[in-house]
Amino acid sequence: MKILIDGIEIEAQPGETILEATRRTGIHIPTLCYHEAFGGQGSCRFCMVEVTKNGSSRVVASCTYPVNDGIEVKTSTPQIDKIRRNIAMLLYKRAPNSLFMQTLYKEYLCTENNLVEDPYEKCILCRLCVNACAAMGASAISTVMRGTDKRVATPYDDASAACIGCAACAEVCPTGCIEVQEDNNIRRIWNRDFTMVACEECGKNFATREQLAYIADRSKQEADADELRLCTNCRRKVLARKLETFNG
Amino acid sequence: MDKILVVQPEKCTGCRTCELVCSYTHTGEINPARARISVFSFERVGFSTPVVCQQCTSAACMAVCPVGAISRDNNGAMVVNHDRCLRCKMCAIACPLGATLYDYVEDKMVKCDLCGGDPACVKLCPSGAISYQDANAANFTKRKDYAARFKDVYEEVG
Ligand code: SF4
Ligand code: SF4
Ligand code: SF4
Ligand code: FES
To answer: Considering the domain B3-157, what is its CATH architecture?
Structure first.
């Protein structure tokens, strides 16, 4: 089907969202809670666009709105720019301690003062971490509480038995608000201490025991396979050494 | 038939040209630390060999990826979709050869992608130690899965 995006006609596939179709053209729609791995969540509303069909227009979240034949999409209008500016302002108000929101606040030319609720807060509640953790099969974290108290946490803020210490949540977080501390052989995340497994060759801490169990399970390797006892670099080195002996 | 990089250690002189060519092709920088292929030399016995991803038939990197960001492309190379990737690094921890790496400079997972079907290291290795051949032709043990081969090497000598 054909759709029009900012005046450019493109071929869209049934079932895809406006955002997906638009990204292919190279036109940029800003997003906050969207990640290609999880698809649209429709929660931050930063990706709003104006859709016109048969003469009537409305503003929709492009990350969840499916394309349909003959629509005309505008990715930037005074109304949309105002919506995005408002979102940037409100999220800055929520998470003023993140460089990410400070930058966005400036980029969208927000000027309001005296907004800050909690000067230390960094989380914008995009839920990408919650999605990442679910993808790991752990689902150790979720959003808790309501309204302005809403936040991401493990149940009762306790160390979670389901957490595998992979830090995927921290990696995917756009605002860098999930703390991962590494001290000697302990990785601390979400109030839980993980003992790191050290490489048998060089002694470098390279994974948590729980990460290795996850890998053994999904890749059908033995959890104590020779390879999984070594760090990435030593696996290559040991292979090279074995080849040497092998070659005579 | 998919082709893979086949390494012949007996021809390798340890010159590291492949590392330089690989990093330059993929990053625009001559920096062996960013290459997808690594050369190990054991000076004492005068032995050198490159080590590189073997695009395994049942690839651990792909199996462990929680979001399906690793897939096989038309050339049979396992490639990472960086937009989909979470950077959890499970693929790197899972690879039995240590052939999937994290590039700090670009904040992304990197691995040999066979240069889209025209491997630069093969073209520029001065001693012909790396060739681009059918996956089950002239390999170490004629096994399809390099991980299994790695195990063989381990078992036979270890
Ligand atoms: S570190 Fe724990 S909470 Fe974070 S994604 Fe991994 S399993 Fe989930
Ligand atoms: S912790 Fe990071 S990823 Fe999770 S909801 Fe908050 S901002 Fe998003
Ligand atoms: S780092 Fe990326 S490609 Fe590797 S397993 Fe995690 S999500 Fe998949
Ligand atoms: S990116 Fe579409 S609602 Fe957040």
So the answer is: 2-Layer Sandwich (3.30)
